[in-house]
Design goal:
15% helix; 3 helices; 8 strands; alpha+beta; Beta Polymerase, domain 2; single chain; 151 residues; eight-stranded mixed beta sheet
């Protein structure tokens, strides 16, 4: 079987004239599935129905969002954790190059994760926010790339 390199997709952009920081969700994007881990000295609590709130003192929250198809969920997470609008726009703009940004109250990374499925080499965008004692990860597609990390 021959290896085909990189399937390109048409970029999804905000409509012309939209102000910077406008979140426009691709209509074909998958509905998000969330997983949260609250890590502390007494152990780890995990849930698939997380509450969006900063963690209590002495604990670290890891919120993973796989799928970017629900604008209301993305806006709620951005509001609760005070995520910069331009960084959130980059989360839903799936053709970003890898980069790191330092905002006033958080750090932001965009990474490309390679995936080899059915003979095609593709990449998936993974966005990471570091906000105090909280790590928020956004995966472009469903499927948990972080499962080996949590094991």
């Amino acid at each position: 079987m021959a290896l085909r390199l990189f399937r390109f997709r048409k970029p999804h952009r905000s409509p012309p004239g939209s102000p910077p920081g406008t979140l426009t969700v691709d209509p074909g994007a998958q509905a998000p599935r969330m997983h949260a881990m609250l890590i502390g000295p007494d152990g780890v609590d995990e849930t698939d129905t997380p509450e969006f709130a900063p963690p209590p003192d002495g604990r670290v929250l890891w919120l993973n969002v796989a799928g970017l198809g629900d604008l209301a969920t993305l806006q709620q997470i951005a509001r609760v954790f005070n995520l910069h609008p331009l960084a959130m726009e980059d989360v839903v703009s799936l053709n970003q190059r890898p980069k790191a940004e330092d905002y006033e109250n958080h750090q932001f990374l965009v990474l490309r994760m390679p995936d080899m499925t059915a003979g095609d080499l593709t990449t998936e965008q993974v966005s990471v926010f570091l906000v105090g004692q909280t790590v928020i990860t956004f995966e472009e597609r469903l499927g948990d790339v972080f499962d080996p990390v949590r094991a």
